[in-house]
């Protein structure tokens, strides 16, 4: 089992590896008590012989409002943390507590990983690396001449950026809020002059799907508690590859419908593991075994 990231050029390099260092990292967000990320990181660190503690900083559990996210970042730096992962609702809010942003995080306007070293708190975004690393490993022969993406939120921004960096020639971004899709397209298009980025309403993608190579869902539709499909299944045809960023459950209704129609599919597990692999390397300077982390993740989510 292999998960090749192939996106290792950082604007800010990972810290210099030191296997004697006692690593302290954390996850900042709300409602994250059940996150699988701490176990994923700590298990891989154990296998690599590292001292590595991963703590959860749950805003709900510690009674802090989301508006305190930036202050909590500075507190973590003062307390000797090596880095933080960041999730909802703090990906934008933490930026006020940072000294710098990687170019990717600046373009995307969202931070999911923070490193503390050389006296600076630097924000990164590894979500797009996670998606494209998983895409290349899980769908190595998939064409990207025309890709339809459903969703223009935080995950959508990272996936769209990843697809364009990977060479997608045409990307159609569809959202139930056209203004949000237009905003994302307008933000990304200037950075990819050789690609065409257009927008659509979610209920108007049927024509694009007829000639598309791939379909990606970046919305919560299909997640536990949000059942359904982001597109009418009658528009899913066997020439499409279909990807979903949702990983609970891994077999979303979209993935099942696509599989039933003979499509190549990519579940959300590879993206969540891919971004964790990239964050682990930023925190430690050591490249973890991505395939091993993916196997551990699948074991953890298996019913």
General description of the model:
The chain is of the alpha/beta class and 303 residues long. The chain has 2 domains: 22-125 and 271-301, Rossmann fold, CATH 3.40.50.10860; 129-268, Rossmann fold. It has helices at 37-47, 59-62, 69-78, 103-108, 127-138, 154-165, 178-188, 206-211, 253-260, 269-284, 290-301; strands at 22-29, 51-58, 83-86, 100-101, 113-117, 120-124, 146-150, 170-175, 196-201, 214-217, 241-244, 264-266. The strands form 2 sheets. Strands 2-1-3-5-6-4 form a 6-stranded mixed β-sheet, with helices on both faces. It has a 6-stranded parallel β-sheet with strand order 9-8-7-10-11-12, with helices on both faces.
Q: What is the tally of beta strands? A: 12
Rg, nearest Å:
19 Å
The CATH class of the largest domain, by name, is: Alpha Beta
Alpha plus pi helix count: 11
Query: Main sheet?
Result: 6 strands, mixed
From the spread of the alpha carbons, the general shape counts as: globular
Q: What string, H for helix and E for strand, traces the elements in order?
A: EHEHHEEHEEHEHEHEHEEHEHH
The CATH H-level superfamily of the largest domain is NAD(P)-binding Rossmann-like Domain
């Amino acid at each position: 089992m292999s998960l090749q990231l192939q996106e290792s050029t950082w604007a800010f390099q990972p810290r210099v590896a030191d296997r004697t260092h006692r690593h302290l990292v954390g996850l900042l967000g709300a409602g994250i008590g059940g996150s699988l990320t701490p176990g994923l990181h700590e298990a891989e660190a154990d296998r690599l012989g590292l001292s590595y503690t991963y703590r959860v900083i749950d805003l709900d559990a510690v009674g802090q409002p989301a508006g305190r996210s930036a202050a909590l970042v500075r507190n973590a730096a003062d307390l000797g943390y090596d880095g933080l992962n960041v999730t909802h609702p703090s990906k934008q809010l933490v930026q006020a507590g940072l000294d710098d942003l990687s170019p990717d995080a600046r373009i995307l306007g969202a931070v999911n990983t923070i490193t503390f070293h050389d006296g600076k708190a630097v924000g990164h975004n590894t979500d797009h690396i996670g998606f494209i690393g998983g895409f290349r490993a899980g769908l190595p022969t998939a064409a990207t001449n025309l890709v339809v993406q459903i969703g223009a939120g935080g995950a959508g921004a990272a996936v769209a950026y990843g697809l364009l960096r990977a060479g997608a020639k045409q990307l159609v971004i569809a959202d139930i809020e056209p203004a949000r899709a237009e905003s994302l397209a307008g933000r990304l298009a200037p950075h990819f002059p050789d690609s065409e980025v257009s927008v659509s309403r979610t209920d108007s993608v049927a024509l694009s799907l007829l000639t598309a190579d791939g379909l990606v869902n970046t919305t919560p539709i299909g997640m536990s508690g949000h059942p359904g499909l982001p597109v009418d299944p009658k528009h899913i045809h066997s020439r499409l590859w279909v990807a979903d960023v949702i990983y609970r459950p891994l077999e979303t209704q979209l993935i099942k419908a696509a599989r039933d129609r003979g499509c190549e599919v990519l579940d959300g597990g590879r993206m969540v593991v891919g971004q964790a692999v990239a964050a682990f390397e930023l925190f430690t300077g050591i490249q973890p075994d991505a395939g091993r982390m993916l196997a551990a993740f699948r074991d953890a989510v298996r019913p």
